[in-house]
Amino acid sequence: MSFHGTCPFIVIKCLLVVEKQLVANIMLNYYDRDSNGVLSEAELDDIEHRDHLDKLNRYCSLTHILTYDDDDEDGFIQPREFYTAFSK
Question: Within a domain: residue 40?
């Protein structure tokens, strides 16, 4: 990928998007405990309690991603849905 002659702000924005996608991919793989490529409510709940994320905010839960971002309403968060949620 060459950015020669490109506006520095566009280069920075592109790099930030790539970084954000990389972080989202790392998170998705970490949360996906059974390595089936999707996130279940049980996996999200397990991570929330194991990593003490439930202590961060009593009104917001990691499992809420199912309520707000499970676009196909199949009960799982697909990678596309996770990336969309992460990019909001």
Answer: yes
d(CA 58, CA 48) in angstroms, rounded, equals 12
- The residue with greater pLDDT, 8 or 66, is 66
Run of H or E residues at 39: strand 39-40
pLDDT at res. 43: 95
Which residues face 77 on adjacent strands?
39
Count the residues in the chain. Answer: 88
- In degrees rounded to 5, what are phi and psi of residue 5? 80, 5
Task: Indicate the residue type of 68.
Answer: Y
| DSSP per residue, 18-30 | HHHHHHHHHHHHH
Is residue 1 situated within a structural domain? no
Q: Please indicate, yes or no, if residue 2 is contained in any of the structural domains.
A: no
| Residue span of the structural domain in which 49 resides | 8-86
Tokens of 25: 């991919």
Q: What is the pTM of this model?
A: 0.75
